[in-house]
Amino acid sequence: MDIDTAAATCDQVLDAVSEAVIADRFFLETVLTGVLARGHVLLEDVPGTGKTLTARSVATALGLSFSRVQFTPDLLPADVTGTNIYDERDRSFDFSPGPIFANVVLADEINRAPPKTQAALLEAMEEGQVTVDGETHSLPEPFFVIATQNPVEQEGTFALPEAQVDRFVVKSAIGYPELDGEIELLRRRAGREAQSPSIERILDREAVLAIRRAPEDVRVDDDLFRYMAELARETRTDRRVRVGVSPRGTQRLFEASRARAVIEGREFVTPDDVKRVAQSVLAHRLVLTADARVEDVQKSDVVADVLDRVVVPTLD
């Protein structure tokens, strides 16, 4: 799929999702950026803002199989990955796939489950496979996780392990709608019998695979390679940061920037593409110092300062 076709298709998907989700267009573009970058998306916000609806709507518009896992304190790893069940007739064990065996998996309120269950997703998110009782099972292609979490300050939540957070290409928040948006939400609800809106299917599995290959054709100049690397390295020297962006994070910045260029319909990455994805790609990877947390420093502020400090390259 060429860049122009991919960009037009992205617009169709975003328009379809917008029919169901009252949200800022840039937020929906961020979610789609994660999909195009062949990664996973983490949505954090208070309950009732539309995180689950967003995930379900994206899966429907893309025409992919979808499953939802409601994470709870008593959820076991086998409840996610599946387990071997003994067949008395054959006297053998048969693997019963868990809900993770879908193209799009909604890990709903992921930080309500204990770390052991959260860690069950790590292999799936990184390798596209799960291992149960020593046997490896491949997940469907494409496969990506859209996880939602409530703010960690809320009761009954666990902070995600840093290794798991690093697996998400982007993290974003839907936020509360504007007044006009909330009125429109009520108007749409009044005009239908079903509580959940219907979504138009735009793509199918083969088309999604094709559109995810489109960023591979996007050109990135050497000056932008240096710019991305300098942004990541600058986070590691900031006095407010205990652990900066890892090399994996630098690669994700590169992949998300190319995906952003596709959404914009360009065959090359610009510094603005990097800037537009930097917050959603980099901020959640930072671990702040104890002093910074006491001073109520926000990770987004650190990334903003880094963007101000690093010299932006001028492309010909």
Structure summary:
With 316 residues, the protein is α/β, with parallel strands linked by helices.
Beta content comes to: 15-25%
Poorly predicted runs: none
Number of helices: 14
Shape: globular
Strand order of the largest sheet: 2-5-8-1-9
CATH level 1 class label of the largest domain:
Alpha Beta
Total strands: the figure is 11
| Cα radius of gyration in angstroms | 20 Å
Class derived from helix and strand content = alpha/beta
Main β-sheet: number of strands, strand sense, barrel status?
Answer: 5 strands, parallel
Output the CATH topology of the largest domain.
Rossmann fold
CATH architecture of the largest domain: 3-Layer(aba) Sandwich
Overall mean pLDDT score?
Answer: 87
The N- to C-terminal Cα distance equals 27 Å
Q: State the CATH superfamily name of the largest domain.
A: P-loop containing nucleotide triphosphate hydrolases
List the helices and strands and how they pair.
Elements: H1 3-18, H2 25-36, E1 40-44, H3 51-62, E2 66-70, H4 77-81, E3 82-87, E4 92-97, E5 104-108, H5 115-118, H6 120-127, E6 129-132, E7 135-138, E8 144-149, H7 162-165, E9 168-172, H8 179-190, H9 205-213, H10 222-237, E10 241-243, H11 247-264, H12 271-282, E11 287-288, H13 290-294, H14 299-309
Parallel strand pairs: 1-8, 1-9, 2-5, 5-8
Antiparallel strand pairs: 3-4, 6-7, 10-11
Architecture overview:
The protein is an alpha/beta fold and 316 residues long. It is 46% helix and 16% strand. The chain has a five-stranded parallel beta sheet. A two-stranded antiparallel sheet has the order 3-4. The longest helix is centred in the C-terminal third of the chain and has 18 residues, at 247-264. The mean pLDDT is 87.
